[in-house]
Amino acid sequence: MTNSDAPTGLVRTAPRRLGSSGPDIGPLALGLWRFTSDDVGANAALVEAGLERGMNLVDVADVYGLDWGGTGFGSCEENLGAVLGARPDLRHRMVLATKGGIVPPVPYDSSALALRAACEASLRRLCTDRIDLYQVHRPDMLTHPAELADTLGGLIADGLVNAVGVSNYTPAQTRALIAHLDTPLVSTQPEFSAACLDPLRDGTLDLCAETELVPLAWSPLAGGRLMQQSPLAGGRLIGASDGVRPELLDTLDRLAEREGVERGAVCVAFVLAHPTAPVAIVGTQQPERLESLQAALRVHLDRNDVYDVIEASEGEPLP
């Protein structure tokens, strides 16, 4: 491929407006699905480090804490609540986002009673009186979107949340909910990375372009799989079983070397390059890593670079 459009980079670095009248959020957000330490001081330092780097959307969920070494349901929200209790100044600098609708052992429950109870419990754990963005974590196939719309509208009307979004919804499920909502849906949260291109293919990002939903991309480093040190791991070739093709890592490394950044910054820049201006949610728990990922904002990717990554990820040239 040639480098014909190199003067005009594709990576979006400007803030996004969350809804027509909502707050501006930075192109990178701080994800707290691994926020399992109970060290309030260290946790506050991480949150402040993210805020100082423009990562003002702070994303958590009530179910976070059941994995990644957490102590149980709600523990990541509790840890963030402890930070906000100790450092209330941080609350005013962030756009606080959380999610509900997963109620173990039942997989999903977005019924009116369950989702309102989940939201109210999140408010208590987070030590706040209002959630800026409340998201349905995963679609509950047994709740009609009209019922869900009524519940979400009620949470806004009662002043418990400022705006609502969805997570892991298909475009059809999102449209069905939008059809019943009296208040705008402002965001959708799909998995999107150089190793997971589903939103490019399944219509999710097309729907964002159509409706101006803000795409909040979770796992832009593919849960760390894109940070493998080498195409060789323990003497074996990284392949389909890991979900990452060696040629993808080679392509990312080539671009990282050219741009003078770490591979992770190129992974994040790839997500930011889509014309719907996704927000990349980064989940590192190391303040120093936030700076290396923030380097994505100075990465120059052109159209050919992005298509190189797509072809390397899928293992075949585009038609």
Feature tags:
12 helices, 319 residues, alpha/beta
Q: What is the topology?
A:
Blueprint: E1 16-17, E2 24-25, E3 28-31, H1 40-52, E4 57-59, H2 75-86, H3 88-91, E5 95-100, H4 112-126, E6 131-136, H5 145-157, E7 161-167, H6 171-180, E8 185-189, H7 198-201, H8 204-211, E9 214-218, E10 232-233, E11 236-237, H9 246-259, H10 263-272, E12 279-282, H11 287-294, H12 303-314
Parallel strand pairs: 3-4, 3-12, 4-5, 5-6, 6-7, 7-8, 8-9, 9-12
Antiparallel strand pairs: 1-2, 10-11
Helix pairs in contact: 1-2, 2-4, 4-5, 5-6, 9-10, 9-12
Verbal overview:
The chain has helices spanning 40-52, 75-86, 88-91, 112-126, 145-157, 171-180, 198-201, 204-211, 246-259, 263-272, 287-294, 303-314, and strands spanning 16-17, 24-25, 28-31, 57-59, 95-100, 131-136, 161-167, 185-189, 214-218, 232-233, 236-237, 279-282. The protein contains twelve helices and twelve strands. The protein has 319 residues and is α/β, with parallel strands linked by helices. The strands form three sheets. Strands 3-4-5-6-7-8-9-12 form an eight-stranded parallel β-barrel, surrounded by six helices. The protein has a two-stranded antiparallel ribbon with strand order 1-2. Strands 10-11 form a two-stranded antiparallel ribbon. The chain starts with 15 loop residues before the first strand and ends in a 5-residue tail after the last helix.
